Amino acid sequence: MISLIREHTEKMKPPRALWVPFELGRPMGAPNNVQFQMKVLLGALNLLEEKEGPILIDFGEEDPTVEGTITNLVCPVNFAQKDEDLSDTEKLINTVKAEMNSLRPWYDEAIKKRGRTTVGVSGIELDGLIDFIAAFFDGGLPENPKEDIALPLVLNFATDDLKAFYFEAITIQPGQKSPSGQVLEDWFWGETKAGKMFLKLKESLKGSEDGLIQAVARIMIVPSSQAYRKKEL
Amino acid sequence: MARLDSMNEKEQKFILSVPCPTYDTQPWVEGPSLSKRRVAIITTGGLHKRGDRPFTFDPGDLYRIIPGDIEANDLAISHVSTNFDHSAFQQDWNVLFPIDRLNELAKDGTIGSVADYHYSFMGATDPTQMESEARELAKILKKDKVDALLLLPV
């Protein structure tokens, strides 16, 4: 097995484990580095040839292609709002729509280049995602588009779809090799209007009487490492 | 980096507080050489076929089957946690589901073969709740003649 948290593996003592120093969510290392992935994979599979255990071995190599400091990710345009009659939340939602439109050519390019997308788990069309999410502000409850999944979980999948749209779009732009997850996270939560919308939504949902919505608000929308940004609202 | 010293204090505290099952014994099994092994992937990444029902917290909803011949665009993720990087998987499915790498190793004879089916759990579930399904799955894997598992966390 591959281990990401060494301390957990030390406690559970599985027969054969290779601890890797990569970010959570990257057990095989960086994307698109075939040679490095192969090295990690063989490091784990070769443990099958060992004769005594339990074994916990360290893979002491960082993926050399990952860039943990560069931030040359292009920030989407900050669109001016003219309609004075709208609430702050409505203005923010409109800006997110405009921001999403500005990223759409890159998202389309990403699908073309990669031949795949991870967007779509919520089952909601891209054009309807923001309206569905925004309907939850201030205690609102939109119609559930999925009969077999609880509405708060559909909200969680919709927020994941929107994040995936942003990340798939930005990572196809030229001028970057392989940004770390941390770089991308800081970009999304620190610089995009969608990140701001989610931070605001989290605060709004906290007042819900529905326990599952509260749980979604508490742990499923904003990563704990980015929760401090609510001060920036 | 999945090293505690690279996480903030709150994350470190949470990670260290996660209950980990311990076992009275440490079973050890040896098998044929790697070049004769049939390998299957088990991930806790909450992966599934695009058309499958996303993972929920419903009782008994514990794993999904991923056929070995799945197309990259048919593999989706619905893991409930937002506290791990999804961007790498979005760019390259091999980061969480290294099926291309395994097929390459089977082709050059480093491993014997790749299993017809692979399996995905959602790791946010209490591991002790998964025991009966895990035992059931072990029987299915034996029937599929799998004798090597690659376990991948997120």
What does this entry look like structurally?
- The complex is a heterodimer of chains A (233) and B (154).
- Chain A contains 8 helices and 3 strands; from the N terminus they run βαβαβαααααα.
- Chain A has a 3-stranded parallel sheet.
- The longest helix of chain A has 27 residues, at 88-114.
- Chain A is globular.
- Chain A folds into 2 domains: 2-58, no CATH class; 88-232, no CATH class.
- Chain A has 233 residues and is mainly alpha-helical.
- In chain A, helix 3 crosses helix 7, helix 5 (151-170) packs parallel to helix 8 and helix 7 packs antiparallel against helix 8 (211-220).
- Chain A has helices at 6-12, 34-45, 88-114, 126-134, 151-170, 181-191, 193-205, 211-220; strands spanning 2-3, 16-19, 55-58.
- The mean pLDDT of chain A is 92.
- With 154 residues, chain B is an alpha/beta fold.
- Chain B has one domain.
- Helices cover 23% and strands 19% of the residues of chain B.
- Chain B has 4 helices and 7 strands, in the order H-E-E-E-E-H-H-E-E-H-E.
- In chain B, strands 1, 3, 5, 6 and 7 form a 5-stranded mixed sheet that branches. In chain B, strands 2-4 form a two-stranded antiparallel ribbon.
- The radius of gyration of chain B is 17 Å and the shape is globular.
- The mean pLDDT of chain B is 93.
- Classes of the chains: A mainly alpha (233), B alpha/beta (154).
- Chains A and B meet through strand 1, helix 1, helix 2, helix 5 and helix 6 of A and helix 1, strand 4, helix 2, helix 3 and strand 7 of B.
